[in-house]
């Protein structure tokens, strides 16, 4: 099995129809043929998308809590200190 990693951020997700086939368009460069997908597979895809949305919301909430705690302690940023070094 081949794994493809694609990051599309907030690019559009659309449903397309071309030449009697149906595609799920993810961003500009990825198109998945879902013409012959069963309703069960499409329902599973919807469930996975819902899980991903919940996961991202939880990550955002966790980051907000860390930022709020840092702000209460008088810090502007949360993270690892970074020091620039001379370029070679």
Class of secondary structure makeup: alpha+beta
Q: How far is the first residue's CA from the last residue's CA?
A: 42 Å
Number of strands: 3
Roughly how many Å is the radius of gyration?
A: 21 Å
Mean pLDDT, all residues: 82
Physical arrangement of strands within the biggest beta sheet = 1-2-3
Number of helices: 1
Largest sheet descriptor:
3 strands, antiparallel
The percent of residues in helical segments reads: 25-40%
Helix and strand element order: EEEH
Instruction: Give the low-pLDDT segments.
Output: none
Shape designation: elongated
Topology (elements, then pairings):
Blueprint: E1 13-18, E2 21-26, E3 30-33, H1 39-72
Antiparallel strand pairs: 1-2, 2-3
Provide a descriptive summary of the structure in words:
A hairpin with a 2-residue loop joins β1 (13-18) and β2 (21-26). By secondary structure, the protein is α+β, with helices and mostly antiparallel strands. Strands 1-2-3 form a three-stranded antiparallel sheet, with no helix packed on it. It has one helix spanning 39-72, and strands spanning 13-18, 21-26, 30-33. It is elongated, with a radius of gyration of 21 Å. Helices cover 39% and strands 18% of the residues.
């Amino acid at each position: 099995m081949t794994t493809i990693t694609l990051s599309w951020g907030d690019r559009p997700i659309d449903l397309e129809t071309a030449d009697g086939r149906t595609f799920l368009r993810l961003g500009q460069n990825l198109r998945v043929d879902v013409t012959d997908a069963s309703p069960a597979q499409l329902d599973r895809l919807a469930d996975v998308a819902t899980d991903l949305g919940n996961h991202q919301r939880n990550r955002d909430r966790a980051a907000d809590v860390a930022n709020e705690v840092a702000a209460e302690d008088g810090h502007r940023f949360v993270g690892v200190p970074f020091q620039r070094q001379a370029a070679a």
